[in-house]
Structures are given as structure tokens and as C-alpha cells.
Amino acid sequence: MNQIDDNTNNLPVVSLDYWSDFAKELVKFANLKPNGRILDVGTGSGTCLVAATDKLGGNCHCVGIDWNETRVSQARDKFKNIDTITAKFHTMEAINLKFEDNSFDNILCGFIGFGDSYDFEKHQLIDNAKMKEIFRVLKPEGEAAFSTWALQQDIETARGLLQRYLKLRNLKTKNQIDNLHISYSKETLDGFKLIMEDAGFKKIKISEKKFKIGYKSIEEWWETMEIVAWIMRRTLNNDSNKLLDLKKNMLPHGIANFENKGRYTFQKSVIFAYGAK
After folding, report:
1. d(Cα 159, Cα 269) in Å, to the nearest integer?
2. Nearest to 149 by CA among 98, 201, 113
3. Which pLDDT score, from 0 to 100, does residue 218 have?
4. Could you read off the pLDDT of 31-48 as tens digits, one per residue?
5. Residue 243 neighbours by CB under 8 Å, 6+ apart
6. What is the CATH number of domain 8-276?
7. Largest CA distance in the chain
8. Pairing of strands 202-215, 13-14
9. Domain residue spans in the chain?
């Protein structure tokens, strides 16, 4: 089980609402153009666009797309009472953007995952259509900014506990246990740079930044993992009794090494990348 860096005390802290924290971090370094058109790919509830409008005030025209219609509705609700912002939201797949070529001055793209574009373990391209679509709708001299996961230590720890539990209860084969998904798209600097270059991006800047997240109790950690570490629910078929059995047998000793002064602290590492057309 991976341990957090020894210098964790020096890492910046993110809250349990880390989506907002990372959205602000992404926007902080993006070269957003005043009065420009901004597209947020994988907008979710519109968090990146909230950060963008906070930076630019009313001087931008925002469009958000997401495949999840419920999340798109949430984004619409979030922006409908902000009279100073022009924002439109659409249910749409990132791989098939319904926009003309050269439509946006800036594109934001947070944590949509490019595992379908590039095999980050085998280090080879699969199908780079999604990144090429993003490049296509960007205006000449426009810039795209991306964030993606390099490490989520809390979620990987939950996966490790699940693997131990499955072995304890003899619920899966060794091969099935070894190959359980980690519940997020784990990517690399080299791989992400390659798919950007392959799509046509220039002036690429890419770096990894480490953060720490703290849970005030075992219960808070577990409640969060039940949501975000979806491989636990899927593997156990949403069986509440098995989930409770997993918790009873694997906690608290399973995360004891992450305890520090009454809080359970884990590392989250994010890749931030920027490129121009």
C-alpha cells in the first residue's frame, strides 16, 4: 500500500470539495481571454466555469458540455441566477462535439479521463479522437487547459482493502482481484503530453502537482469512499451487508498508517497541462 510523501506537511491542502479547489487551480494558470468564448468539456455541475467567471467577472461567454444530463441540469441551475454571465449547457459527448471548427478562444477540461485514448500502462495510443475533437473546435492561437489524475491515494487504498477482503472471503479469483479497476483514470505526464502532441497542440506546458486531503474520522473517509471508490460497490453488487462486512474486517487497521494527529491524510497528485493551437 503506497505511503504518502514524508514531506506531506509541506503539501497544499484540498478540502473534501476538491473539485472546486482543483478547478480554481486549473483556471489560475489558464490564459483566459477577456470577452472570449470558453468551452468546458466535462463540465459536471459547472465548477470550472464558476472559477473562470470568478477570474474574469462578466467578461466571458461560457459553454459547458457533459454526457450526464443530470449534471448538465445542475450546471444550468447554478448559472441561471447569475445575470452578468452568458452561459449555455448541453448534453454532449466529448468525442463528438457539436460545434464548428475554430469556435472557442479557450477550452477547459478537468478530469474527463483519456484512458480510452491512450494506454498509460503499456504506453501506446489507442484512439486519439477525443483530444483531436477538442483541438478541432479551438480557435487558432487559442489555448486549452487540462487537469487529470496522477494519483488518488485514498481511492487506491480503498481498492487495496477491497482486494484483501475478496481474498479473505474467497469471493473472486486471483486474476480478478489483481485486475480490479482503481475507480479513476490514472494517467502520466509523458502519456498526456504525447496525446496532446498527436492532436496538434503546440507550446505544451505540463507538470504534476501534489496535494494532501485530510479526513477527520474513519467514518468520514469510509462514507466518501463508498461514493468515489465505485469499484467497491460494483464488485460487491451494491450489497449493503457485504459492504458492512468489508468495513468491519478492514477498518480501522487498514488505514492506520495514514493517521496523523487524529486525521487520516492522503495524497492526491494532479497533472496540469496547457497547449495552444
Report:
1. 17
2. 113
3. 97
4. 999 999 999 999 999 999
5. 226, 232, 233, 236
6. 3.40.50.150
7. 59
8. parallel
9. 8-276
pTM: 0.94
Query: Cell digits for 204?
Result: 505544451
Q: What angle do CA 155, 249, 179 make, to 5 degrees?
A: 45
Q: Which amino acid, one-letter code, is at 24?
A: K
pLDDT digits (tens, 9 = 90+) for 183-242: 999 999 999 999 999 999 999 999 999 999 999 999 999 999 999 999 999 999 999 999
Q: Are 151 and 211 in contact (CB under 8 A)?
A: no
Residue 3's pLDDT is 44
Q: Are strands 138-152 and 104-110 parallel, antiparallel or unpaired?
A: parallel
Please state, as a whole number, how many other Cβ atoms lie within 10 Å of the Cβ of residue 78: 17
Helix (H, G, I), strand (E, B) or coil at 153: helix
CA distance 110 to 134: 13
Which single residue is written with the C-alpha cell 459536471? Answer: 44
Beta strands, E only, the chain: 13-14, 36-41, 60-66, 86-91, 104-110, 118-119, 124-125, 138-152, 202-215, 259-260, 263-276
What pLDDT does residue 86 have? 79
Q: Are 230 and 168 in contact (CB under 8 A)?
A: no
Residues in the chain: 277
